[in-house]
TrEMBL record:
It is found in: Membrane. It is a multi-pass membrane protein. GO terms for molecular function: ADP transmembrane transporter activity. It comes from Heliocybe sulcata. SUPFAM superfamilies: Mitochondrial carrier. Keywords: Membrane, Repeat, Transmembrane, Transmembrane helix, Transport. The chain crosses the membrane at residues 70-87, 182-203, 224-243. It comes from the Eukaryota. This is Mitochondrial carrier. Its main location: membrane. It holds the Pfam family Mito_carr. Solcar repeats lie at residues 5-90, 110-209, 219-308. InterPro entries: MCP_dom_sf, MCP_transmembrane, Mito/Peroxisomal_Carrier.
Length: 324
């Protein structure tokens, strides 16, 4: 994500790209969550879940929780891109001798540990802010799974407005676990901050290995899509057991006081006992597909005219302030 653009510009363009990707891929996100939280003896296939939701709840059912999920996506990506760019620029500036005028702090290549560390810290900050919305989203996405076995309530009643359902979920989470409930699974989320860090490291590696000239500094939208999509797919495959544990923890209604790490260990043990090693990767295929499209669209939009528009607005505001 090396760029000569200011952190605020990168934050806005990154958030715009992620919001666009989220709107396009959201049904896949909902299906992914349903597959990951299924405890069926045979598991649940993505196509089977898709057909079930579409048949029982209609097209609207494929967008349960999209409001809170989009909010979490925008919040998380805005602060991730901003923090990543800011931290990277600060670290680059410290590595350049004060006498050197020929090296830009924003184009200097960092070492592998530095790239991972910057991405990890930025990921922790962004996820700390967006986790409450992610927890609400996970509950909204899975509430209908148990609707047939529970008496009607504002949460699982499709006739109730989206805003009422959101408030019901928020109230339910608070009653179960207090404020801490909105950060359910955060310890696993912290470890998953390696995901964007690893993704952007692999994306940088892709740019250095396959792109040349100006394309390496500013990839074309198609190049950005391919590189980001492949990078995210590899990162997801490496970290998937953590992703599975995070989703199940956030969708859980348990008010247990056990830590997320011990809960994650229980989830892995239970999944392994039920399905063997495959149980730790339940839903991996659809998760990779969703991540491939989402990350690819995010970076493609970020490298396209939306980023140019944000730059133009940023320069316009700067010129206006300078004229005062």
């Amino acid at each position: 994500m090396t760029s000569t653009l200011p952190p605020l510009v990168q934050a806005f363009s990154g958030a715009a790209g992620s919001a666009t990707a989220n709107a396009i891929t959201y049904p896949l996100d909902l299906v992914t969550t349903r597959v990951q939280t299924s405890h069926s003896a045979k598991g649940a296939g993505a196509l089977q879940v898709f057909r079930h939701v579409l048949h029982k709840y209609g097209v609207d059912g494929l967008y349960d929780g999209i409001g809170t999920d989009t909010g979490a996506t925008i919040l998380s990506n805005f602060f991730y891109f901003y923090a990543y760019s800011l931290l990277r620029n600060l670290l680059s500036r410290r590595r350049i001798p004060s006498s050197s005028q020929s090296v830009s702090t924003k184009t200097l290549l960092l070492s592998v540990p530095e790239e991972l560390a910057v991405g990890f810290l930025a990921g922790i900050l962004s996820r700390a802010l967006s986790t409450p919305l992610s927890v609400v989203t996970a509950r909204l996405q899975t509430e209908n799974d148990d609707a047939d076995s529970r008496p009607p309530s504002p949460v699982n009643n499709p006739e109730v407005s989206r805003s009422s359902r959101i408030m019901s979920v928020v109230k339910s989470i608070y009653e179960e676990s207090g404020l801490a409930g909105f950060w359910r699974g955060f310890e696993a989320v912290v470890l998953l901050s390696l995901n964007p860090s690893l993704t952007f490291f692999l994306y940088q590696f892709y740019r250095r290995l396959f792109l040349r000239g100006t394309d390496r500094q500013t990839p074309k939208p198609a190049q950005a899509f391919l590189g980001a999509a492949l990078s995210n797919s590899i990162a997801v495959a490496l970290l998937y057991p953590l992703i599975l544990a995070k989703t199940r923890l956030q969708a859980s209604r348990s008010s247990s006081s056990s830590t997320s790490i011990s809960s994650a260990a229980y989830i892995w043990t239970s999944a392994y006992q039920r399905h063997g090693p495959r149980g730790l990767y339940q839903g991996l295929e659809v998760t990779i597909l969703k991540g491939f499209l989402s990350q690819g669209v995010t970076m493609m939009v970020k490298q396209s005219r939306i980023e140019q528009l944000v730059v133009a607005l940023y320069l316009y505001r700067r010129a206006g302030r300078g004229a005062v």
